[in-house]
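Notes from the pairing session

We agreed to fold both candidates in a single pass and log them together. This is the raw record for the first candidate, unedited. Please don't reformat it; downstream parsing expects exactly this layout.

Candidate A
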Amino acid sequence: MSLVLAWIFAHFVTLGSPHWGPGTRHDAVIFGQMIAIGLFPILFLIAFGTKNPVRGAVFVGIACIAAASGLLFER
């Protein structure tokens, strides 16, 4: 479950980057992909590295909600 939520977070960051990223659409997508690639392993480690697995899944779920809310913002 945590792995799926971490992947969904990375997907939402990549989808939302053209809305809040830099200048051109191509640059924004590349920027979003860099953020997703950087944060995916961190979220993966947080999800499985906590003492309580449910706490890790909740943290990654909150990150997914934050990334999904990024789709609502326009420049």
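Candidate B (folded immediately after A)
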Amino acid sequence: MTEFTAEHTPAEVVKVFPKASDLFKQRRIDFCCGGDRPLGEVFKERNIDEVAVMDELNHSFQDWQKEDHEVVDLDTKPLSELIDHIVHSHHAYLYEELPALGKFVSKIFRVHGKNHPHLKELHRLYNDFKVDMEEHTVNEEENVFPLIKEYEHNPNEELLERIKTANGGLEDDHDASGNILKHIREITNGFQPPRDACNSYRITYARLAELESDTFQHIHLENHVLFKRL
């Protein structure tokens, strides 16, 4: 591919050009849960300058290609390799980060909640997200991913139906978790700490931004690559 058009979806773009996720996050363009809509529709709905965004996207893509990056075709990568990457990269990150970051969220709520009332809502939203993602990752690793690996070696309709049943509401879970992160971004002013923020406050916001970025990549891989191939 040499150029993207407004007919491409954000998910298609990120599959080919992973760095596009940075541009989409800056422009508040969903490339994970709602990433299956053509960019042109998103531009019209959000009143975004199509020419400016597509120019920036394609110029960035051309520069990226000149750096001789390897373009990985995720649609041909073995399913088991995709699953192992998701587990060892994204799931492992969540297992380590969610409890650690939760302590920071609780601390700034306790210390600064009186002067910054939105921290109460942040505390509630974060803990909802934490519980949802912990349950979600366990369900995938114990019920869904083993079936997909089995299907890769022994594809049959019966096993595919079992996967669909086990998969159940996983994509709905993704939507719910994505919406929580979008809400967190809104109430934290795009993860911009206030002027009087202490170091803990600033660290919390920086780590929340990183959590959002990793989770959106995680959801994108599952929704638009792994699950779609089934």
